[in-house]
Amino acid sequence: MPSTKDVRTAAGLRPMLATVTPAMLTTKVRAPVTAVNGVPVYWMTEPDHVRSMEAAAESAGVVAFDVETTGLSPRRDRLALLQFATPSAVFFARPDMLPLVTPFLTATEGPVIVGQNLKFDLGFLAANGVWLPHGRRLFDTMLAAMVLHNTANKDEDDDRSTSSSLVDLSLRYLGVTLDKSEQTSDWGAAVLTTSQLQYAAKDVLVCLPLYDILKAALIRDDLARTASLEFRALPAFMWLEHNGAPLDVEAWKGLAALATEEKAKVETEMNAMVGAMVMPGRKSATIKSGEREPGVRRINWASNNQIKAVMATRGWGHLTKFDSKALTEYLADDPLFPLLLDYREAAKRTSSYGTKMLTFVENERLYPTYWQLGTISGRPSCSKPNLQQVPNKRPYRAAFKARPGHVLVKADYSQIEFRVMAQQAPDMVLRRLYAEDTDVHTATAEAVFGRTIDKDSTERKLGKVLNLALQFGMGIKLFRAVAAKRPNNIRLTLAEAKDLRWRWKATYYGIRSLHDNVDDGPVSTRTFIGRRCTLVRSYTKKLAMPVQGTAADGQKAAMALLYERRDRVPGGRLVLSVYDENVLEVPKEYAAVAATHLEDCMVTAMQPMLPDVPVKVEVTIGETWAG
Q1: What SS3 state is found at 611?
Q2: In this structure, what is the dihedral angle of CA atoms 608, 610, 616, 621, given to the nearest 10 degrees?
Q3: Other beta carbons within 10 Å of 312
Q4: What's residue 280's pLDDT?
Q5: Which is it for the CA torsion 58, 60, 66, 67, positive or negative?
Q6: What mean pLDDT is reported for the chain?
Q7: Could you tell me the CA-to-CA distances from 69 to 76, 124, 187, 192 in Å, in that order?
Q8: Residues contacting residue 526 through CB under 8 Å, at least 6 positions apart
């Protein structure tokens, strides 16, 4: 058989094998309807045509897959075209052929399925009742590129594009410029144009040479294991988006109204504290607390310029920023600082987590977008709306309520980042405490204070602050501020804070050794499975990235396992995944089964990454996310 190696020409990509061999196509396949860069394009309209596509894919060991749709939402829009590409041919199918190609797509074994942003394509398949059994056959070019080019300082890396779109990947790796003008054309038309078909064929074809290049690069950089985890977890993220999260709309409206009241109350307190002032602006005016006279303006506490003016009168003119970090560092030095933090927290609850949240509701559920590689640590991010930042307050979590006849089963990893630190430092004292299932925060407090500590004491609370704040090398000023911040409310002098930090490091000498041996300059960090982040300069990030990344790796492995074993809990579905926590919505009669299943999946997935530290998962069952 002739070589199928891809070559580049001025016109774009052209496989050297430009015709389809008899072994790949049956005699019933009609002549190609067109050709793209020398590659014939066929319509699949009957079973023999599908078998020809399958034979071509099996011969190549890989098939590129893509779909065109009438819009971006699997819940509101519909499939318009399915595209399959091998090095020798492109195969098109209308949506009515989906039942015939489903066995090929859903086979547990078979050719690698390559695509760009496959979560989108799988979402439309799922909306039509087609569910892949797992992600082990997948190779997503977007995720592969993001794994390869994960860097903490993109501006310093001239060789790395900040985008992993198909247009940018094609230009960067292949020197091919893709024309995306047809992307927004009318894909709901009864008859697709030649231009649309050419566009669809080029989009799916370009994934094949990208696959070869990216796969080789992943192996070269020892990132194949990381990429494989991302591909395996991909269907789980699609599943999560498909399921949505249940929301009690009326309860949320009440929370939004309450947040508005709290914001106004804090604003009044701040105005009373600063008194009368003349603020900068186009029309300067004297501001007095509570005044609403014509021509008189209140202080706009959302304005950075006005906040700077206020702070300058209170002796803080030397500070250039009054963000959360700055306010936290000096929290104990000005009573206005905690009020301003409270104001911003209330303002966020009135905006992003107020009535704005309700604009995303569809049939009493929220359907956010999860970005699988949304952070450089490897953790996902979430948007429209961002459910990962829902206020961690009981009333807000109670607003996420299971539909009738169902409950929410939630499980979160216990102290997972500190456990990962015990593994990676390594810290033998911490490993022993976890092996004995000791309350680590209490043990920390007893070690630094040299006496027995009650679990409900302020000292135990301080032990927790010490562990969470110092494991990644937090500075002494910020440590004091975190201790003073609500709900801790622990005031420490500079000398006390330094002494506590010294005692903490003396207790966990493995972590201290890790802190003392961080390389200078930019470094590349790696997680337990090898996830890489380049050009890490920050001291705290050098310590945090391997730990947070390993925790993210384990969480993604857990999500993948939950998807692969989803049939073990009839009617169960993953509805929330927030950092180290997963939430299933299940019929009430399967609550106990789901609890055991969820814990087992999470422990089984994470434990291989912590071979010397036991993994612990805490599970609760309730009608709401609050339990």
Answers
A1: coil
A2: -50
A3: 12
A4: 59
A5: negative
A6: 90
A7: 11, 8, 6, 12
A8: 532, 546
* CA proximity to 32, closest of 46, 19, 48: 19
239 or 298, greater pLDDT: 239
Amino acid residing at 221: D
Distance between start and end Cα atoms, the chain? 62
For residue 402, what are its two tokens?
A: 């299971």
pLDDT at 355 over 50: yes
- Where do we find the tokens 């912590």? 610
- β-strands 406-413, 581-587 pairing: antiparallel
What SS3 string covers 3-44? CCCEEEECCEEEECCCCCCCCCCCCCCCCCCEEECCEEEEEC
The candidate with the shortest Cα–Cα distance to 111, out of 239, 244, 207, 221, is 207
Task: Map 556-588 to HEC letters.
Answer: HHHHHHHHHCHHHCCCCEEEEEECCEEEEEEEH
The per-residue pLDDT for range 426-484, each reduced to its tens digit, is: 999 999 999 999 999 999 999 999 999 998 999 999 999 999 999 999 999 899 989 98
Q: How many CB atoms lie within 10 A of CB 451?
A: 8
From residue 53, alpha-carbon distances to 79, 91, 553 in Å are: 20, 7, 35
Q: How confident is the model at residue 326 (pLDDT cuts 50, 70, 90)?
A: confident
Which amino acid appears at position 616 of this protein?
K
Residue type at 477 in one-letter notation: K
Query: 3-class SS at 427?
Result: coil
pLDDT 10s digits, 517-555: 999 999 999 999 999 999 999 999 999 999 999 999 999
In terms of Cβ atoms closer than 10 Å to its own Cβ (0-12, 13-18, 19+), residue 108 is exposed
In whole angstroms, what is the distance from residue 176 CA to residue 163 CA?
Answer: 16
DSSP 228-239: HHHHHHHHHHHH
What is the C-alpha separation between 233 and 283, in angstroms, rounded?
56
Distance of CA 122 to the CA centre of its chain: 18
What length is written for the chain? 627
Is the Cβ–Cβ distance between 63 and 86 less than 8 Å? yes
CB 592 within 8 A of CB 584: no
Q: Give the tokens for residue 568.
A: 């073990």
213: Cα within 13 Å, side-chain hemisphere: 17
Task: Report the C-alpha gap between 343 and 362 in whole angstroms.
Answer: 30
Which parts of 315-472 fold into alpha helices (H)?
Answer: 324-329, 336-350, 356-358, 394-398, 416-424, 428-435, 440-449, 458-470
> What's the angle, vertex CA 210, arms to CA 207 and CA 213, rounded to 5?
155
This prediction has a pTM of 0.91
Tokens of 159: 């060789």
pLDDT band at 156 (very low <50, low <70, confident <90, very high): low
Residue 513 to residue 49: CA distance in whole angstroms: 64
Residue bearing tokens 């186009």: 282
pLDDT average, residue stretch 274-283? 63
